[in-house]
Amino acid sequence: MALRVASRIGRRVRPGRGRCAQVPARVGLLAFTDARLIAAAHDVGLQVHVWTVNEPWDMDRLLDLGVDGVMSDRADLLREVLIRRGQWPAT
Questions:
Q1: pLDDT tens, 7-48?
Q2: Which of 35, 81, 33 has its CA nearest to residue 54?
Q3: What one-character-per-residue DSSP string does 23-78 give?
Q4: 27 domain residue, yes or no
Q5: What is the CATH number of the domain that holds 61?
Q6: Domain, as residue range, for 47
Q7: Which end of the chain is less packed: N or C, by CB atoms within 10 Å?
Q8: 54-76 pLDDT, tens per residue?
Q9: Which H or E run includes 52?
Q10: How far is 74 from 55, CA to CA, in rounded Å?
């Protein structure tokens, strides 16, 4: 939550000992993870992992914003999105 607040008021967040922020993509119908939150995290060297993203349009939105990881109940859809985007490793 501190990261979200800091991103809203333009303050630099002080990272803890972790190396990533694992945050919800949405809270109810509202997007929780946005460009400001991602920028604030990246500014202090934190990766951003979002959960739980089960819709392809939301996966695209978050990947376009620059998230570093996506957790989903629909790995099949996430794989399809990443293949379409050229972000799935070639086999």
A1: 777 767 666 677 899 999 999 998 999 999 999 999 989 999
A2: 81
A3: EESEETTEE-S-HHHHHHHHHTT-EEEEE----HHHHHHHHHHT-SEE--S-HHHH
A4: yes
A5: 3.40.50
A6: 2-10+17-84
A7: C
A8: 999 999 999 999 999 999 999 99
A9: none
A10: 8
